[in-house]
Write a structure and sequence with these properties.
Mean pLDDT: 91
Low-confidence stretches: none
Number of strands: 2
Structural class: mainly alpha
Strand content: under 5%
Number of domains: 1
Helix content: 55-70%
């Protein structure tokens, strides 16, 4: 396992503090946990959106800085990730709807679980897209990305070449461990609002992955 950077240490201390306070409030003052600590438009939600946005900007920056040295597959990969994380940041805050006090159209009022202009709270045939795609599918993707891919990358030259060709950052083991610990700590919070903290952990850890992946050579010009 590679040595933790100063940024890693700060980020993990931050997450430890956030989750420790979350466990404390969830078990001593559930109303405060739900209505203040993890409320809509609170620090967790805005922190998640900000870090997703920062990840996207970092990827766009690397694309524009390095694209003249890289092949088409690398460009497709890094741009795809940048767009996905920009989309995630926008969705997290409903594209600034509540910030700018923009009214939802009738379609979103009728088909969105929260009456907001976003896709992850849309309801189709009585089922929330958030549960189908952003929970179940994302869980499968994370298991593959955080646990299986790092092993294959280290064992298979084919997988290594494929990941590097598409600019797919490979997690360092301490990042995987941080994610597993964050997942385990959710057990100690008996509220559905705990997922706001989990999303924040997701945003923090993925920013660290993009900042300093195991295969950092994908962000070099040669």
């Amino acid at each position: 396992m590679k040595t933790l950077t100063q940024t890693d240490k700060i980020a993990y201390i931050f997450l430890l503090l956030v989750f420790s306070l979350g466990i404390y409030y969830a078990n001593t003052n559930l109303q405060y946990f739900d209505e203040v600590y993890t409320k809509e438009d609170g620090f967790a939600e805005y922190g998640t959106a900000l870090l997703l946005f920062c990840s996207s900007i970092l990827l766009f920056y690397r694309f524009f800085k390095l694209q003249k040295f890289k092949k088409s597959l690398w460009k497709v990969g890094i741009l795809g990730l940048a767009v996905i994380f920009m989309f995630g940041a926008g969705e997290e805050i409903s594209w600034g709807q509540r910030i700018f006090e923009v009214e939802s159209s009738q379609y979103f009022i009728e088909n969105n679980a929260q009456g907001e202009t976003n896709l992850h709270n849309m309801v189709v045939d009585g089922k929330k897209i958030n549960k189908i795609i952003f929970s179940q599918l994302l869980t499968v993707v994370l298991v593959i990305y955080l646990l299986i891919t790092p092993l294959l990358f280290r064992k298979s030259p084919f997988i290594k070449n494929l990941a590097n060709s598409f600019a797919i950052p490979i997690v360092q083991w301490h990042q995987t461990i941080a994610f597993l610990i964050s997942t385990a700590l959710l057990v100690f919070m008996g509220s559905n609002r705990k997922w706001e903290l989990y999303e924040l952990a997701f945003a923090v850890i993925f920013f660290l992955i993009f900042l300093n992946p195991f295969n950092k050579e994908i962000y070099k010009s040669n």
